[in-house]
Amino acid sequence: MKEWTKTIEIDAPIDYVWSFLDGPVENMQRIMPGVLENKPVKVTEEKVGSIYRQKYKEGKRIEEYDIETLEYLNTPDEKNLKVGFTLAKMFEITAKYELRKINDQKTQFTYTTRNKPLKAFLKLFLFFAGDRVVVKFCEKVKKEAEADYKTTSAIR
């Protein structure tokens, strides 16, 4: 199993950043362009245990898998979402998004992902894997949230 974590500051209020992680699929697609669909299969009142069927395009291939909500917290100063899924029957993956309000205009974003290979030969593959994907994802969330906030602020 391998885990990567990255923390950055985003110049946007916590609710703006949260809308990309726990909002409409159109917002999710801005930070994860490969997501084609994210349809509810089972939704629980407390969110934990909810399952969404997601279609994701990687190159020419389209994968479909069920994503389960493992943790969920939505308060004015702190928001957490942890999801888990199995990718191509080869990896168990969890992704955790943690937001902490620094002030009314700034949010701390921590992204943690954990990959567990389900086949022995994949352990070597993970040994050489770096954090490039995690860093790139954090930068994408920062870019989209800040751009969205600046546009919305300019309209007011």
Determine the N-to-C terminus distance. Answer: 47 Å
Average pLDDT metric:
91
- Stretches with pLDDT under 50, minimum 5 residues: none
What structural class is derived from the secondary structure elements?
Answer: alpha+beta
Number of separate strands: 7
Strand content: over 45%
Helix content: 25-40%
Question: What is the gyration radius calculated from CA atoms?
Answer: 16 Å
Largest sheet descriptor: 7 strands, antiparallel
Number of helices: 4
From the spread of the alpha carbons, the general shape counts as globular
Structure characterization notes:
The chain has 156 residues and is α+β, with helices and mostly antiparallel strands. Helices cover 29% and strands 47% of the residues. It contains four helices and seven strands, in the order E-H-H-E-E-E-E-E-E-H-H. A seven-stranded antiparallel β-sheet has the order 1-7-6-5-4-3-2. The longest helix has 24 residues, at 132-155. The radius of gyration is 16 Å and the shape is globular. The protein starts with a strand and ends with a helix. The model has no long low-confidence stretch (mean pLDDT 91).
